[in-house]
Amino acid sequence: MDSSTLRLGHITYSNCFPVHARLIDRPRPDDPALIEGVPSYLNGLLDAGRIDVAPCSSIEFARHARHYRILPDLVIGSRGPVRSILLLGDRPPAELQGRAVGLPTASATSVVLLKILLRVRWGVEPRFFWFDQATEDPFRGGADAALFIGDVALRPGLQPHKEVRLDLGAEWRDETGLPFAFAVWQVGSGSTPAMRDLHRKLRESRSYGAERRGELAERYAARFGFAAPMLDAYWRDLSFDLDTEMEEGLRTFYRLAAELGEIPEAPVLQWVS
């Protein structure tokens, strides 16, 4: 890889594919190098300077606001049910006071979202513990409820006997009336001209994905282990546009996260311009 090639983080979950679609499906020599990983892994790479840009967990910007900028107009978000961020359990969340709730190590933003909803929407403060959702069953570890994210949460056979199955995208929308931004494209290094060029390529790539969504779902369904119609519907219902309403949802998330002590303060959004 040429030393001047930008290093772009790519979330391995299917929710990132529609924005990076052209970069993956029809790569070009001048494209950035894609570095893959789960959200928490990419967060660490960006913080360490081992990648230049990534669609990192939105809470990460709040924790590094003095060092990162955001590429405008790009988001992985939902305007209602998201389907891939689920709280599962045997009892309603309002009954989880003091009880054990499992949090996946792969997540950052969704964990803070859950903590906000538990406190603000349901008025409870559980006990939390971490688990690896790829290898561990939190309910065998004593959880009364557990959060699952990404493609793991989309599996039809995930914990089929759990009676409580709450979509946190829908719960957030019901509570605030706003969409939710799970990830934004954050810049840790790279010149402004290089970022402008990358921004153009990413918007072009997003358009490529939108225009060929059904075709791409057919061709890439096996990669993610889903039926093509299901993958197509999942991509259709996600939002990849960081518009004014989505930005308001992001600012509200930061305000509530600060009130809970998850971040020192709600950050000022710094954009690549």
Write the layout of secondary structure elements.
Elements: E1 7-11, H1 21-25, E2 33-37, H2 39-48, E3 53-57, H3 58-63, E4 69-78, E5 85-89, E6 100-104, H4 109-121, E7 127-131, E8 145-149, H5 150-154, E9 164-167, H6 168-176, E10 180-187, H7 192-211, H8 213-224, H9 228-237, E11 238-242, H10 244-259
Parallel strand pairs: 1-2, 6-7, 6-8
Antiparallel strand pairs: 3-10, 4-10, 4-11, 5-8, 5-9
- Number of contiguous helices: 10
Number of strands: 11
CATH superfamily of the largest domain: Periplasmic binding protein-like II
Radius of gyration: 18 Å
H and E order: EHEHEHEEEHEEHEHEHHHEH
Question: Considering DSSP H and I runs of 4 or more, what fraction of the residues is helical?
Answer: 25-40%
**From the 3D coordinates, which CATH architecture of the largest domain would you assign?**
3-Layer(aba) Sandwich
- Large-scale geometry: globular
**CATH first level of the largest domain:** Alpha Beta
- Overall structural class, as computed from helix and strand content, comes to alpha/beta
Report on this structure.
- The chain folds into 2 domains: 136 residues, Periplasmic binding protein-like II (D-Maltodextrin-Binding Protein, domain 2, 3-Layer(aba) Sandwich); 92 residues, 3-Layer(aba) Sandwich (D-Maltodextrin-Binding Protein, domain 2).
- 39% of the residues lie in helices and 23% in strands.
- α4 packs across α6 and α8 packs across α9.
- The two termini are 27 Å apart.
- 45% of the residues are buried.
- The model has no long low-confidence stretch (mean pLDDT 95).
